[in-house]
Design brief:
Elements lengths: L1 H18 L7 H4 L5 E8 L2 H11 L7 E9 L2 E11 L4 E9 L2 E10 L9 H5 L19 H19 L3
Antiparallel strand pairs: 1-2, 2-3, 3-4, 4-5
Length: 165
């Protein structure tokens, strides 16, 4: 009986640790601790991926997207954590969308050498932009591939939002 109890305790303690989401410990989410935040996995079927590839002209690497829905005093927004290859390494962005516009775009991780990363002020230019306005953002000298990667992720988040998935 004690062995069964011990096994069950280990199982449930592992369940609790597995259910913790380290993303929610990010500073962005800590600032919104008074909001209701729900994690959701979006499973993209072949049809949605085909539409995306046709509209955006790029392949969807994964069929599963992790998204967070935030309800802050009735204001609903969605937060996407997306990664994309810049040169040979990846950058990871947090993109918050509300009313089909980017509200926040933050770099969570940039694995390329720092000389290829765009300045924070450039990333901020995406804020309040809609899908059609992203291409109006100026290029960054020395960070062309970073620009393309950032634009791909911004377009991906806005596409997912527009399809109401």
């Amino acid at each position: 009986m004690e062995l069964l109890t011990y096994i069950l305790l280990i199982f449930f303690s592992l369940q609790v640790k597995a259910s913790e989401d380290p993303i929610l410990r990010l500073e962005f989410f800590q600032k919104h601790e008074d909001c209701i935040i729900e994690r959701k996995y979006i499973y993209l079927d072949r049809e949605i991926k085909t539409i995306y590839e046709r509209e955006i002209n790029q392949a969807f690497e994964s069929s599963i997207i992790k998204r967070y829905q935030m309800n802050c005093l009735g204001q609903i927004s969605k937060v996407y954590i997306l990664s994309d290859r810049v040169r040979s390494h990846y950058q990871t962005l947090l993109i918050q969308i509300s009313k089909e516009r980017i509200q926040v775009l933050e770099v969570l991780k940039f694995s390329e050498p720092q000389k290829y990363q765009a300045p924070k002020s450039w990333y901020h230019k995406f804020v309040t932009r809609s899908d059609s306005e992203i291409f109006n953002i100026d290029a960054v000298t020395g960070a062309t591939l970073t620009r393309y990667s950032t634009m791909r992720m911004a377009k991906k988040a806005l596409f997912l939002e527009s399809k109401n998935l």
